[in-house]
Amino acid sequence: MKTRNLVLLAFAALAFCGYAVVATAQQPDCALSRRAYDGYLGDGKVGGFTAPRYVHQTIHVGLAVSVTELAHLVLHTRPVASAVIGAVAIGIVPHARDAFVRPIYGVTTRDALADAMLASIPLVAAVGWSARGWQSKVLAATTIIGGYLAAACWASP
To answer: The pTM is what?
Structure first.
């Protein structure tokens, strides 16, 4: 992959997070050490726990990495294709479920965009690592750090 494509990916990530700020017109919650409950297996008080928000965000990225690696091992796909599977499964599917299957809960735009950004971290890493040259790796790392800093305050819980 060429550095030009990585630059476009980095600008897309920043535009994505910028859209979250404009589309929601809400104040960000940047208290990342605030303890909050997040259910991983279902709705309500089943399958989750209370922890600082940054722990939940780290687990969210870890789940995306796990699904990416599982798809890579089971389906024998290339790293970028596996990372797309992980990003969609962890970042998009839960919010699509809330929008279409359980519309009574509704979808918070800022949370959906932030979760998609956090779940796409393995994708950005795979694209950056598959490119040649140190510039692409630095650009991928910068995109991951900037994307997290832009999305962290918008993600719930």
So the answer is: 0.79
